[in-house]
Write a structure and sequence with these properties.
With about 180 residues, the protein is α/β, with parallel strands linked by helices. About 40% of the residues lie in helices and about 20% in strands. It has a 5-stranded mixed β-sheet, with helices on both faces. Helix 2 packs parallel to helix 7.
Length: about 180
């Protein structure tokens, strides 16, 4: 990373998506909430970096630990004991819970394996994504970044993929993909 790119936020690779998502939400007078895990707050911070974010952003949670999912993500002890790693069903449940609690039009959620080592479940570079919407159900998508155990790169890629899925849902192309 060059000095110029390290001082800019949001990361240049996701800046156009952030602007597009914010514009679409503002035009439609709709709102979004965020439930993120491995992206560590990058999705929320990116959305909040746009002027007028208070009109579209209802709130966000970084649900990195299983304990935080119990406390704030709507999880039960059974969810925690059955957890085997990021999956479409995990992110769909978190997104639906946070959307209901924050009363947003949409909630975007990601959970992935950023690396460098293996956690529970899939290899580093895998991310499961969901967008919960009040009408029309929840859309999920799974993506492999191809970055292996490059933790920071995966975190930015996960945020970008989450914003891409949200954009796809907003423009009517969000029926998921493998």
């Amino acid at each position: 990373m060059s000095a110029a790119s390290s001082s800019s936020f949001p990361p240049p690779s996701i800046r156009p998506l952030v602007a597009e998502v914010a514009s679409l939400l503002k035009e439609r007078k709709e709102t979004v909430s965020v439930a993120e895990t491995a992206a560590g707050g990058l999705i929320s911070a990116s959305l909040l970096s746009t002027p007028g974010a208070s009109a579209i952003y209802r709130g966000g949670l970084t649900l990195y630990t299983l304990e935080s999912r119990l406390a704030f993500g709507g999880w039960t002890a059974a969810d925690k004991s059955q957890y085997r790693g990021p999956s479409p069903s995990v992110v769909a449940g978190l997104a639906e819970n946070v959307r209901r609690k924050l009363e947003s039009t949409y909630c975007v959620c990601e959970s992935g394996t950023a690396g460098p080592g293996l956690g529970r479940g899939p290899a580093p570079g895998y991310v499961a994504l969901a967008v919960a919407r009040g009408e029309g159900g929840t859309v999920t998508r799974e993506v492999e970044t191809g970055l292996g155990g490059e933790r920071e790169g995966n975190m930015v890629a996960f945020a970008g993929e989450a914003l891409r899925l949200l954009r796809d849902v907003l423009v009517g192309e969000g029926e998921g993909r493998g």
